[in-house]
């Protein structure tokens, strides 16, 4: 449900009235991974983290889960880590590419800094 704020801008709210957080999906994923003890999580663990912190996403689950999956696969700042043999469970782990960790310096998840492309010359 959308409502309008006093300045005329649309504000996204859930059924319970919770406001959509000002974080991108990339920022939410990074927040979850960086809060994990070993800095890697499964898709399910990432979604659990997001729902535990933001009422809006608890109310809207599972509609946004595919967006999280899409962002993990699409963005090169996330690295897929296969499960070790003998480690039962569903799905791979995801971690932040070490080259991307400076995107969230000082705990700021609101803006994504542009990463410079690496060019190879022969």
UniProtKB/TrEMBL annotation:
Record SUPFAM superfamilies: Winged helix' DNA-binding domain
Cellular location(s): Nucleus
InterPro entries: Fork_head_dom, FOX_domain-containing, TF_fork_head_CS_2, WH-like_DNA-bd_sf, WH_DNA-bd_sf
Residues annotated as domain Fork-head: 20-114
Any Pfam family hit: Forkhead
SMART domains xrefs: FH (SM00339)
GO biological process: anatomical structure morphogenesis; cell differentiation
Keywords per UniProt: DNA-binding, Nucleus, Transcription, Transcription regulation
One GO cellular component term: nucleus
One example GO MF annotation: RNA polymerase II cis-regulatory region sequence-specific DNA binding
Keyword S-adenosyl-L-methionine part of the UniProt annotation: no
Binding region for DNA: 20-114
Protein name per the record: Fork-head domain-containing protein
Organism: Nippostrongylus brasiliensis (Rat hookworm)
Phylogenetic lineage: Eukaryota, Metazoa, Ecdysozoa, Nematoda, Chromadorea
